[in-house]
Amino acid sequence: MKQKSTDSPHDKFKSSSSNNLFFLLLLLLTNLITLFISSSLFSCSYKSLSTTVEETATIASDLPPEFLAFTSGQALPFGFNTNFDSDTIYPPAGKACTLFPDELRRYMSYKVNGSCPDDELLAQKLLLKGCEPLPRRRCRPASQPEYTEPYPLPISLWTTPSDSSVVWTAYTCKNYNCLVNRKRNEKGFSDCKDCFDLQANEKSRWARSKGGGLDFSIDEVLATKPRGSIRIGLDVGGGVATFAVRMRERNITIVTTSMNLNGPFNNFIASRGVVPLYISISQRLPFYDNTLDIVHSMHVLSNWIPTTLLHFAFFDVYRVLRPGGLFWLDHFFCVGEQLEEIYGPLIKSIGFNKLKWVVGRKLDRGPELREMYLSALLEKPLKNSW
Ligand SMILES: *[C@@H]1O[C@H](CO)[C@@H](O)[C@H](O)[C@H]1NC(C)=O
Ligand SMILES: *[C@@H]1O[C@H](CO)[C@@H](O)[C@H](O)[C@H]1NC(C)=O
């Protein structure tokens, strides 16, 4: 993990990133070769509109026909389009999808125009492994036979939704009562174990700062910018979206990315009346350059993410923030000297201005693990950010 001990932290980061760069180039090269081979393979199939799914399937017989039907080149009905610079469109699915042919076949096996299999767990695992975006399907997703309409705003923001808004198959808990009580009743680790109880810890998160520590309050963060200039943003890995709800109370619109890790996070967020975005940390953020006023992330961007992926992720945050926009990195965690040697230099190298930078010890799993937290408030420069 560590490089030569004579190196300064900066050099360490540099040398590990040049290694990474080498692998990245290698990966890119192999990708290009794959692309070249696959585009020459498919070139015969998209020339004719009448090509059937079966014909394409014989070309790459280990891939499911519905996958090929979706991803193969499709001729534009009106021919060459200057916007596309092409007469063909290739609908996207994650490049890694085809690395998992068995799961992909199960995921893409269904009756066209019928009901999809109730397979959330399979789909999410496939996505998290890198098949992101998942290919589209031509079937109807599993849903409750009797759906209950959501509570109206503003009641919905702080009320546990009806159990019948969720398909529970993928989760250990089979109702919201179980989720609300799981911090008391369930042993072991669960992602965001206490989050579903809106009357407990969620009630006070980001409401007030605990005086110079790792917990910044929303109001203290907003006070660093001209009044009203923070209007739209993103919360990466935002649990049950209490951050978005708090911001909504200040007329700020936040969309929240979340996975459904042993809980219906996306349904819950939507039921509260804020927008969930079902993408993992691997995916390019679906926003244009220089557009968002604020990006927040708590606990999720941390040392469990491969360093190269994290480097790309931080640059993507920089990309989507407008000049003058804020990146609130909330409780980033790592172990011992990782912060000084790897992550501190990495974060500082992106190009943000440092508004706040607080380091503290993470003690919840015991001091002997030497875990550290960083809470930082970073600003994309208003001038010369390019
Ligand atoms: C598709 O499914 C719907 C609902 O089951 C049915 O009404 C419709 O006729 C089907 N369409 C075709 C083309 O099979
Ligand atoms: C939010 O907007 C509403 C309607 O424009 C306004 O009445 C309210 O005062 C605003 N709240 C805040 C905290 O700015």
Automatic annotation (TrEMBL):
<dbReference type="GO" id="GO:0008168">
    <property type="term" value="F:methyltransferase activity"/>
</dbReference>
<protein>
    <submittedName>
        <fullName>Putative S-adenosyl-L-methionine-dependent methyltransferase</fullName>
    </submittedName>
</protein>
<keyword id="KW-0472">Membrane</keyword>
<dbReference type="InterPro" id="IPR004159">
    <property type="entry name" value="Put_SAM_MeTrfase"/>
</dbReference>
<dbReference type="InterPro" id="IPR029063">
    <property type="entry name" value="SAM-dependent_MTases_sf"/>
</dbReference>
<comment type="similarity">
    <text>Belongs to the methyltransferase superfamily.</text>
</comment>
<keyword id="KW-0325">Glycoprotein</keyword>
<keyword id="KW-1133">Transmembrane helix</keyword>
<dbReference type="Pfam" id="PF03141">
    <property type="entry name" value="Methyltransf_29"/>
</dbReference>
<keyword id="KW-0808">Transferase</keyword>
<dbReference type="GO" id="GO:0032259">
    <property type="term" value="P:methylation"/>
</dbReference>
<dbReference type="GO" id="GO:0016020">
    <property type="term" value="C:membrane"/>
</dbReference>
<feature type="transmembrane region" description="Helical">
    <location>
        <begin position="21"/>
        <end position="42"/>
    </location>
</feature>
<dbReference type="InterPro" id="IPR053223">
    <property type="entry name" value="Prob_Methyltransferase"/>
</dbReference>
<keyword id="KW-0489">Methyltransferase</keyword>
<keyword id="KW-0735">Signal-anchor</keyword>
<keyword id="KW-0812">Transmembrane</keyword>
<dbReference type="GO" id="GO:0012505">
    <property type="term" value="C:endomembrane system"/>
</dbReference>
